Q: What sequence folds into this?
């Protein structure tokens, strides 16, 4: 549960930074406070959906990645409609943002798993010599 909360906060923070950069590049001057909570809500829904997808234990990793990306895009489009994002941000920008976020979170997960594997291997080596 703690890891889920950390992941939600991390993706929300990265999403807000990316939104701020997109806003600056398109001539925006501020980010509404309500937008922060909208992004948080959207990220919570995305993580809940991805948790359900991971529990389905799909056989093929590429299929699972495709389902994850489709889920992200559906959630972003739904949130865009519900929160009125499309009046200020085009749909394609939000879709690219979602795909970039998925790529970034996947890369971070891979780095984290590599560290865990290295730690486990070190423990195995220590155990052999004691």
A:
């Amino acid at each position: 549960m703690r890891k889920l909360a950390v992941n939600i906060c991390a993706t929300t923070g990265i999403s807000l930074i990316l939104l701020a950069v997109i806003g600056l590049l398109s001539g925006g001057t501020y980010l509404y406070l309500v937008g922060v909570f909208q992004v948080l809500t959207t990220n919570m829904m995305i993580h809940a959906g991805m948790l359900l997808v991971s529990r389905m234990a799909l056989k093929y990793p590429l299929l699972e990645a495709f389902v994850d990306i489709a889920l992200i895009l559906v959630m972003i489009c739904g949130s865009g409609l519900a929160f009125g994002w499309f009046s200020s941000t085009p749909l394609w920008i939000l879709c690219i943002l979602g795909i970039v976020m998925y790529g970034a979170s996947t890369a971070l997960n891979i780095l984290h798993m590599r560290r865990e594997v290295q730690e486990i291997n070190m423990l195995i080596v220590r155990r052999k010599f004691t």
About this structure: The two ends are 35 Å apart (CA to CA). The mean pLDDT is 90. Residues 2-129 form one domain. The first helix runs from residue 2 to 25.
